[in-house]
Amino acid sequence: MSPYTPHNLGVVLHTLVPRPQVFVTGAAISEAMTNESIAVWEGFIKATGSPETILINLQGEPPVDGNWRAEIMRRLDAKYRNNTTSQ
User: Fold this and answer.
1) If DSSP codes are grouped into helix, strand and coil, which group holds residue 24?
2) Assigned domain for 68 exists
3) How many independent structural domains does the chain possess?
4) pTM for the model
5) CB-based burial of residue 38 (10 Å sphere; 0-12 exposed, 13-18 middle, 19+ buried)?
6) pLDDT, tens digit, 9 for 90 and up, residues 1-50
7) CB of 54 within 8 A of CB of 81?
8) Segments forming the whole domain that contains residue 69
9) Are 86 and 52 in contact (CB under 8 A)?
10) Is residue 1 situated within a structural domain?
């Protein structure tokens, strides 16, 4: 039996300090579990007002080259790399 439940995920998210900014889901779990985890993440963001967050949903086809790590980094770069403020 898996220790995962939507409630447990919510408890973990609300306990982490500093607050998480990135949530990666979907590559190795069912579509139903992915949808549950996304709903929990969205509830966490709404409840905490965490700014500048990103959800990376890997549900579906793998990257063409099969490199999940590179795909995650590509998405993080797209969100954060050019998101700097002028000094």
Assistant:
1) strand
2) yes
3) 1
4) 0.83
5) middle
6) 678 899 999 999 999 999 999 999 988 889 999 999 999 999 999 999 98
7) no
8) 6-81
9) no
10) no
